[in-house]
Structure formats: C-alpha cells, structure tokens
Design brief:
Number of strands: 49
Oligomer: single chain
Shape: elongated
Structural class: mainly beta
Helix content: under 10%
Distance between the termini: 32 Å
C-alpha cells in the first residue's frame, strides 16, 4: 500500500461473534481481517489437551472441608464492594484457597456448581497450571459470578513445559472479578492468550496485571467479546501472532487508571476495537506498544465507537500509523499524543480513515514522525481539532504537522500548528487538491514557524 492510499484499513472486517471456544478437536472457522497494510486470512485448528476437572463430588468434599461458605451464591454486584478496602480489597471475606493448582481448580468448579463465590487466594503463591482442562484453558470456564482475590505476589501461570493453553475463559453467564492478581504465561492456539471473554460473559480486573501471555491469533492479553473493565491495572508485554497484542475487543471495553504498555502484534500492537464494539479509556497510558505493520497503540475500526480522555499515548511504533487509527467514531479529549513513530509509511501520531469521524479537543500532538506523509496527523475522513497544539512533528515527505488528502475534511478551531517539519513540502499542513481545510483563524488558529513552509493549498494560511 502506498503512503497516500493508506488504510482502506478501516472499511474492513468481517467478524465472527460466535464464542471463541472450540469443542474438542474441532477445527476453528476461517477468519479474515484486512488491516491498514493488509492482513492475511488465517485458518487454525486447535488441538485440546486431555484430562478434565475433578469430579464434582470430590471437589465438594475438598473445598467444603475448608469452608462451607462457598456454597452460598453471590447475588451482589461484581464490584464486590463488601470485599474492597484500601488498595482494592479487604482480606478475609471470602473462602481461602490453599496454594496449589488442584485446590484452585476444585474451588472454581464448586463455585460454578453452586452459583458463584468469593475466593481468597494465598499470598506469596504461584498457582502453576499444568494442563488444558477446559477447551483451551488451564482453569474451569467461569459460568457464574466469581471473585478471585489475590494479594501480595499472588500469580496464576501456565507451567513453562506444558502444552499451549490460556489461563481463563469466561463463558455466557460468567462474571469474573480479579483483585490483586497476576495472570501470566498463557499461550492460546486461538485468541485470548491470557483471558478469553465470550459473548454474554463479563470480566473486571482491578489492581491486577495481565502480562507475558501469547495468542497465536488475536488478543495476546485479553480477547473480549462480552463486557470487560480494566481498572487500576496493567496490560503489558503480551503478544499476538495476528492482531491486538494487548486487548482485542468486539464487545464493550472500559479502561480506567490503567497501563497498556509494551504489547506487540503484527497489526494493532496495543488494542484493537473492531466493528460493533465500544471503548472508553480514561486516565491511562498506552506506551511502547509495537506493530510490525499498522497502528502501534490502538485501532478504533470501522463501525466502532471510542472515547479517550486524560490519557498519554507515547512512544508507540509501527511501519504505518505509529499510534492511533480512527476508522469509526473517535473522540480524544485532553490527550497527549507524543513521540510515536511510523517507521516506513504515513501517520506518525494519528490517522483518520476514509469513513472515520474524529474529534480532538484540548490535546497535544507533538514530536511524532512518519516515514512519508503526515508526521503528526494523516486525515482521510472528517477531522475536527479544537484548542489543540500540533508541534515538533516531522514527515519524511509532505505534511509535517498534518497531511490532508483529497478525501479529507479538516476543521481547526483555536488550534496551533507550529514548528513542524516536512522534508519535501507543507511543513505545517499539506492539503491535496480536492481536500478541504478550514483554519478558522478568527477563533485563534495559528499556523506558523513550520519548515520548509507553513502550508500547501490551504486558503488563508501564511507562507
């Protein structure tokens, strides 16, 4: 794909919203997604391990002996406020689960059978899972409201020598809350290396870390097809063989006061929000994520809705679109978009797709760079920038601050485009013939001190 043709990307995606848990030895359906630089169709067959959860009777005897309170279903919200104190939880309110994978498997199995539970995992404990016991997961699928309370140095992981499986699956009717837990070492042959949330399922992660998980397809850390909330947590160093190194979202996703950092994928290194999904990010960071092809930090794709507020999106890298791809409806408010890099092609900081509608308010777009056009911004759709500064961005060809192709409509209000650099032309704004740029200088918009010039084909812009 050439720089100026970047991102038919955003008109793509045929998605399958069926649960991503195959039956035993059932071939996965073929999935196709066309990314910003063109993603290939993949067809994988999942081979599930042998073995299963302990018999219900044995589980009941083991766990009931510890504490029969597990038998009482939870009917309260999974916010679990009765179990939260300073730092996220008040210890001693649930059923203790001794340190050991068998004990955890038994406790979850019984909790599912009895309608839910609050389980207090042991501190300074690593629950090491050794086998795929439930259609690609090392723990029983969550089918009821279950809270897993961890503590200091509480971890659930896959044994390094074990066959590939994810850590947890949340099925329809399941409502899983994680408190003070680390989920690591999962490796799925499909999607959701750490956790898979199927349609009708819900996940809340609080004061937790999802790290160093791998998905052979999508969603290295989490693949969400239901409702997921990430609060005061970290999604880091996860990897996907296709897209969405950190989180893949086709449902509803909320991220607040969290870090999505240093994840990697072929496309969409941090987060991918696909058609029909919604995302809201507040008070968070997306830093150091990488994509081999497109969109280092986040995609809000065609048919998706996104809002990002009070968030820093920095030092993300991809061949094309260093940080943010807006192919659907996206709003950025009080966002810092800085030091992101498109190493080869267009859009160091932000790209707006051909049918994308993006609003940027009270934000800073600074020190981003692109190999070709659009060091700060590349707009193919409808972009409105209010009370925003684009400064210090650099393009290897045209449009150091902003590149506006013939399909683009760009409106600037009380916005400053200053001290940007283009190697060829249009240091501040390069507008292709046919594109529309409204500076609205009466509102305080300034285009100045750009090199080698301020604008190309922009009415009312000083030379």
């Amino acid at each position: 794909m050439t720089g100026k043709d970047a991102n038919t990307a955003m008109n793509y995606q045929r998605h399958e919203h069926k649960p991503d848990r195959p039956g035993a030895r059932r071939a996965r359906s073929r999935r196709r997604a066309v990314g910003l630089a063109g993603m290939t169709s993949l067809a994988l067959t999942t081979s599930l391990g042998v073995g299963g959860a302990p018999a219900i009777g044995a589980v009941e005897r083991a766990v009931t002996a510890a504490d029969d309170r597990l038998g009482r279903p939870i009917h309260a919200s999974t916010d679990n406020k009765d179990h939260e104190g300073k730092g996220g939880k008040d210890k001693g309110k649930g059923t203790p689960v001794r340190c050991g994978a068998d004990a955890l498997i038994a406790a979850i199995t019984l909790a599912n059978a009895r309608g839910g539970a609050v389980l207090d995992l042991a501190e300074d404990c690593t629950y090491t899972l050794t086998g795929d016991i439930d259609d690609g997961a090392g723990l029983p699928a969550i089918t009821t409201p279950i809270t897993l309370n961890g503590g200091k140095h509480t971890t659930i992981t896959r044994a390094a020598a074990a066959d590939e499986f994810r850590i947890l699956t949340v099925d329809a009717g399941g409502d899983l809350t994680l408190n003070h837990l680390t989920i690591t070492g999962g490796q799925s042959t499909g999607s959701g290396g750490g956790i898979l949330v199927n349609t009708g399922g819900a996940l809340t992660a609080k004061y937790s870390t999802i790290t160093r998980n791998i998905a052979n397809i999508n969603g290295g850390g989490i693949s969400n097809n239901g409702i997921t909330a990430i609060k005061h947590s970290t999604i880091s160093r996860n990897t996907a063989g296709n897209n969405s190194g950190g989180v893949r979202n086709t449902g509803q996703l909320t991220i607040s006061d969290a870090h999505v950092d240093a994840n990697a994928a072929v496309d969409f290194g941090g987060i991918a929000n696909l058609s029909g999904s919604s995302i809201r990010i507040g008070g968070s960071t997306l830093t150091g994520n990488t994509a081999r092809q497109s969109s280092g930090a986040i995609l809000v794709g065609f048919g998706a809705i996104g809002e990002i507020i009070d968030t820093r999106i920095t030092r993300n890298t991809a061949s094309e679109v260093g940080a943010v791809a807006g192919g659907g409806q996206l709003t950025l408010k009080r966002v810092t978009l800085a030091n992101n890099t498109a190493t080869t092609l267009t859009a160091g900081g932000l790209i707006v797709g051909p049918v994308g509608t993006v609003v940027v308010e009270d934000s800073r777009i600074k020190d981003n760079s692109a190999g070709t056009d659009g060091g700060g911004v590349f707009n193919q759709g409808v972009l409105t920038m209010r009370r925003t500064t684009a400064t210090g961005n650099q393009a290897g060809d045209q449009g150091g601050g902003i590149f506006n192709p013939a399909t683009g409509t760009l409106t600037l209000s009380d916005t400053k485009v200053v001290k940007n650099i283009a190697i060829t032309d249009g240091g501040g704004i390069f507008n292709e013939v046919g594109g529309t740029v409204e500076l609205n200088t009466a509102t305080g918009t300034v285009v100045a001190k750009n090199r080698p010039n301020n604008c190309v084909n922009v009415t009312g812009c000083p030379d």
